[in-house]
Amino acid sequence: MSSLVLAHTRYQLLEQIRVPIGLISSAFFPAASMLAFVVPFAADDPMAATTATGSMMMVGAMSASLMGLSISVAQDREQPWNGYLRTLPAGPLPRFAGRILTTMAVMLLAVIPVLVIAALFTEAAITVPRLLLGLAALLAGSVPFMLLGLLLGFLLSSKAAIGVSQLLFFPVAILGGLFLPLQVMPAFVQAVSPFVPSRGAVELVWSATTGAPADLVSVLALGGWTAVTAVGAAWAYRRDEGRRFS
C-alpha cells in the first residue's frame, strides 16, 4: 500500500473520529434493529439467530457504504480543499482507496454492537473461522453499495445525497429480506428479491457464516450490480471533473 493511500486513509479516519456522528448512526441502526426484530422472535433458534445476525450486519454495512459514503463524498466536493487535492499530480486513486478503506473500517466497527447483542441475547452460534469468513463476505458484498455511494456523492449536493441515499436504503434492504424473512413477505417481493443487490450480498454472508449454499441467481445479480455501479461511479467522477475543471 502506497504512502499516499495510507495518508488519505489516516486523514479520513481522523475526520470520522473527530465528527463521529456518521459512525454512531451506522452502528446504532443495525443494533436497534437487532433488538427490535431478532431478539424477540428468533433468539432461541440457533440457525435463525445466526442468519438474522448476518442480515443485521449487512444493514450496518449498507448504512456505512451507501449513506455514509455518498454524504461524505458530496460534502467533500463542497469544500475548497477538495478542489485543491484534485489538481495534484497523484490522481484520484489515493483518495478513492483511502475513502474505501475508511468506509470498510466504519463497517467493521458498526457490526460490533450487533455481534455483542447476538452473543449476549440470542442462541446464535459461530466458529472464529466462520466469523472471519463472514466479515470478508460482508466487505465483498458491500462493494456495489460503496460504488453506488460514490455515484450519488459525485452527482448530488450533500443535502440531496442525504435524502436520496435514505430513500434507496430502506426499499433495497426490505426487498433483500434483511428485516423480515421472505416467507412472510408478499409474493411480488419474493419474486423481485433475488435480483436486488442486498439479497446477493446477504446470501454471501449467510453462506460464509452458516455453510449453507448461496443462491446462484442472487450472487450473479450482485455481480451485475457491481459492474453497473462501477461504470456509473466512473462516469459520475468524470462528469464532475469535467464540470469543475474544464
TrEMBL record:
User: Pfam families recorded for this chain?
Assistant: ABC2_membrane
Q: Where in the cell is it found?
A: Membrane
Show the stretches that span the lipid bilayer. 21-43, 55-75, 96-121, 133-156, 168-196, 216-237
List, for all copies, the residue spans of the domain called ABC-2 type transporter transmembrane: 6-205
Q: Which key words tag this protein in UniProt? A: Antibiotic resistance, Membrane, Transmembrane, Transmembrane helix
UniProt cross-references to InterPro entries, sorted A to Z: ABC2_TM, ABC_2_transport, Nod_factor_ABC_transporter
Topology versus the membrane, per the UniProt entry?
Multi-pass membrane protein
**Name this polypeptide is given:** ABC transporter permease
Q: List the lineage, top down.
A: Bacteria, Bacillati, Actinomycetota, Actinomycetes, Streptosporangiales
